[in-house]
Design goal:
114 residues, mainly alpha, elongated, transmembrane helix, transmembrane, membrane
Length: 114
């Protein structure tokens, strides 16, 4: 039961970030607040969980030290976004080059003619 409640709380925090972003809030602050809450909620939940089957299946997560939790959330998480950000930036740059040189419009015209 507590696992479901934690999952719902995490989804509500994410939806809160979405609402905050749509209203024009600072995304860096929003992501920081979400990361802090996503660190605190599972840690508190791991202390409250009493289901032996859940503890046996997730022993590595339930018994993870606080330092490892902080490392996984605040270091490994942003490191994982590095390649995504590079792809996003180069893709946007490549798209602008294709639009400005007319390559995109000629590809569209040739595709429509097929």
């Amino acid at each position: 039961m507590i696992q479901t409640l934690i999952g719902i709380l995490l989804l509500l925090v994410f939806l809160g970030l979405v609402v905050y972003a749509v209203k024009g809030g600072n995304l860096m602050i929003g992501m920081l607040i979400m990361a802090i809450l996503w660190t605190i909620i599972p840690l508190v939940g791991n202390m409250l969980v009493k289901d032996p089957q859940f503890i046996a299946q997730n022993k590595d997560v339930v018994t993870m030290p606080f330092k490892d939790v902080l490392t996984n959330v605040f270091q490994a998480g942003p490191e994982g976004w590095g390649p995504v950000l590079v792809n996003f930036c180069f893709g946007a740059w490549f798209g602008r080059v294709m639009l400005q040189t007319g390559i995109a419009s000629s590809i569209i015209k040739k595709t429509v003619e097929l």
